[in-house]
Design goal:
Elements lengths: L4 H16 L9 E7 L4 H13 L6 E5 L3 H10 L5 E4 L5 H10 L3 E10 L1 E5 L8 E2 H8 L21 E5 L4 H11 L10 E3 L2 H9 L4 E5 L1 H6 L4 E3 L2 E2 L10 H6 L6 E9 L6 H20 L7 H19 L2
Parallel strand pairs: 1-2, 1-3, 6-11, 7-8, 7-9
Antiparallel strand pairs: 3-12, 4-12, 5-9, 5-10
Helix pairs in contact: 2-10, 10-11
Length: 315
Amino acid sequence: MSKRIPFVLAGILGLLIASTGFAGSKALRGTVKVDGSSTVFPITEAVAEEFGKVREHRRVRVTVGVSGTGGGFKKFLAGETDINDASRPIKQKEIDKARKNGVQYIELPVAYDGLSVVVNKKNTWVDYLTVAELHKIWKPGSTIKTWKDIRSNWPDQKIQLYGPGTDSGTFDYFTEVINGKSQVSRSDFTKSEDDNVLVKGVAGDKGSLGYFGFAYYVENKDKLKVVPIKQGNKKPVAPTMTTINNGSYAPLSRPIFIYVNLKSAKKPEVREFIRFYLKNAKELAKEVGYVPLLDQDYQKYLDKFETDFLKLAQR
């Protein structure tokens, strides 16, 4: 009897360790690779940070790159990443590439964004811009060089333009709704996939004008002035949490997404990260300056993820 006590105690102790997680036997391990949109980056980064604070997740490494939506899809469709952040829906040529490469994926909307047109804080003359004026400024072959070229009562000051690079989903969306076709734009502007570079550029030049995701404006309100947009005969509307959510900030409101490789989702750490993402996106989207989906929408997309993954796992 006395000889068995240590073994019995050891067994009990082992059960206690397992149930409390002290030994880390139930802890997830591995790496979750994310890349893509700089617009979606703030949400995904916030999710990754909170995910890592959970005790069971501390051995999971989540890497979040910023290659732009298009650049991210190139890596995603080559099987180099598990998740792609995207500020636009996947294009047909990317869908074709996914089929060719055998990449099965699921599209999950995570929030709403309102592309924000911004000028320097010292700009006192711009009260709003119309969609037609934005087209006049940004169309290919545009002859707009100064603010006076837009409206005759504005100053004869040179415009310095800033915008996302061509791999950006924000660039795709803006050019589509303003110029009528994705990727169609004047080329003589300062471009970057990093929105912080654009913020710095606009903030440092009185004659500047640029555009990027709403969260970057919110984060830099003290350095920038947002420009209300007038569509047709409607009153000018500025991007806010309310106007983006109710659709009155048009035509520059849009959903933003994450795309998940369903093969990657076979890895427990990726699967758990997606679940955590959708369960916490509402609060974290608001925290970083985006407009969250409705509660039932997050649950709907979580259910869709679970269903699609289960179908794949049964094959």
